[in-house]
Design brief:
By secondary structure, the chain is of the alpha/beta class. The protein has helices at residues 11-14, 16-26, 40-45, 63-82, 96-106, 135-165, 172-181, 225-232, 250-264, 292-295, 308-316, 330-340, 354-366, 368-383, 386-400; strands at residues 2-6, 30-35, 49-52, 88-91, 109-114, 186-188, 205-207, 238-240, 268-271, 284-287, 301-304, 321-323. It folds into two domains: 2-210 and 385-400, Glycogen Phosphorylase B (Rossmann fold), CATH 3.40.50.2000; 220-382, Glycogen Phosphorylase B (Rossmann fold), CATH 3.40.50. The strands form two sheets. The chain has a seven-stranded parallel β-sheet, with helices on both faces. A five-stranded parallel β-sheet has the order 10-9-8-11-12, sandwiched between helices. Helix 2 (16-26) packs across helix 15 and helix 4 crosses helix 6 (135-165). The protein is globular.
Length: 401
């Protein structure tokens, strides 16, 4: 079977699908991933075919404008990415509103492969927001409203794409409702140990476990001698990094990180990321891009933005976290970490100070409960086979189609 994954966004929105794609390829399928050009090497390293998909996240725009601009860019080239042919489309939450029309136009099956729980439920608040529960009625109502906002962002691009494909006019909201009425299958790539499947979800929504990136099994052999020497030269350090977040605030965050590490009396690994963080001095080292699996198990704790991928990587390593959420789904996962006991209470990015961060680092490294709970969750995640379960359900759904 020829399978095409349509994925777009940040590194954390794409990397998990290299692992899922690799497992599908092992099962005998031809797999390609259409995503932004800067991920071509990442896709190729997983032994998968790369297809270019336009769209770049601009750090100089507001979140809403950034999303709208990104969707418009993807819409310009998404049809060409599918044109070479496929038997099955795997659509992420970012690409599904466009992919549904492509599947319709080509008469092929499609399945959702989502990293965040976007379907409304009474059991927890929408994934985009503060993460605080609004009560059962409020949670579900807010979830429905969140989807309507998504449909508004995608509406103009969906309209243009359907005209390009020769399809009859249909709103983004109407297409979504059609998929829901048909119990369109969606596989959720996170662990039920971290967030159980809601009892009020419809049939066809399955929480299968994490899809670890193709490089997620790399060990410390990937570390340079400089980093390895630093790690062996003292007690486990605390990692501080914000991935693709924090653009334009590198200088402030760098100073803040160093002061917090000094006040907490711990060594630190500062990851540059998009913000360009840099930490210097005794007991502090700055690093670039390193697979989380190679670094996190060596840490005493991880300070991160609580993106879905980074949150899962820290839990897999059995390392407690200090979540500093910025936007999107990050407050949701940050709050979930605290509820699970594997992290401190979130520190909102806008409220981050050296004193607050130092206090949280002291708490997370000094209280063994956080480490114990993170270790227990790591054992549960190790027992999952999210990619294997996904392959099984994908093949079953394709046969049914």
């Amino acid at each position: 079977m020829k399978i095409l994954v349509l994925a777009g966004g940040s590194h954390g929105d794409v990397a998990p699908f290299t692992g899922l794609g690799a497992r599908l390829r092992q099962a005998g399928h031809e797999v390609a991933i259409a995503t932004q050009p800067r991920f071509a090497e990442l896709v190729g390293a997983g032994g998968l075919e790369f297809r270019p998909l336009p769209g770049e996240l601009r750090r100089d725009l507001s979140p809403l404008r950034q999303a709208t601009d990104f969707v418009q860019q993807m819409g310009e080239g998404v049809a060409a990415a599918v044109a070479p042919g496929a038997d099955l489309l795997l659509l992420t939450a970012t690409t599904a509103p466009l992919g549904w029309s492509l599947a319709e136009a080509h008469g092929i099956a499609s399945i959702g492969v989502y990293l965040q729980p976007v379907h409304p439920t009474a059991e927890f608040a929408p994934v985009v927001g503060s993460g605080r529960s609004l009560g059962r009625w409020g949670n579900r109502a807010a979830g429905q409203f969140s989807l309507r906002m998504v449909d508004r962002v995608y509406g103009p691009t969906v309209k243009k794409l359907r005209a390009e494909l020769g399809l009859p006019p249909m709103t983004a909201r109407a297409i979504r409702q059609r998929q829901e009425d048909a119990n369109w299958p969606v596989l959720y790539g996170y662990s039920p140990s971290v967030l159980p499947r809601p009892a009020d979800w419809r049939a066809g929504l399955d929480v299968v476990g994490n899809w670890w990136p193709a490089d997620a099994d790399l060990t410390d052999c990937q570390l340079t001698s400089e980093i390895e020497d630093f790690l062996q030269d003292g007690p486990p350090p605390v990692f501080i990094g914000f991935g693709s977040m924090g653009g334009g605030e590198g200088e402030r965050l760098s100073e803040l990180a160093v002061r917090a590490l000094r006040r907490a009396g711990v060594r630190g690994v500062v990851q540059a990321g998009w913000a360009g963080l840099s930490g210097t001095g005794e007991g502090i080292i700055t690093v670039g891009e390193i697979p989380h699996a190679a670094l996190f198990p060596r840490m005493a704790a991880v300070v991160h933005h609580a993106g879905a991928g980074t949150t899962a990587a820290a839990l897999r390593a059995g390392v407690p976290a200090v979540p500093v959420p910025i936007l999107g789904d990050q407050p949701f996962w940050a709050r979930r970490l605290a509820q699970l006991g594997a992290g401190t209470d979130p520190i909102p990015f806008k409220s981050l100070t050296a004193d607050r961060l130092a206090a949280a680092i002291t708490r997370v490294t000094g209280d063994p409960v956080h480490r114990t709970r993170a270790t227990a969750l790591a054992q549960q995640l190790a027992a999952d086979d999210g990619a294997g379960r996904a392959v099984e359900l994908i093949e079953r759904a394709a046969r049914g189609h």
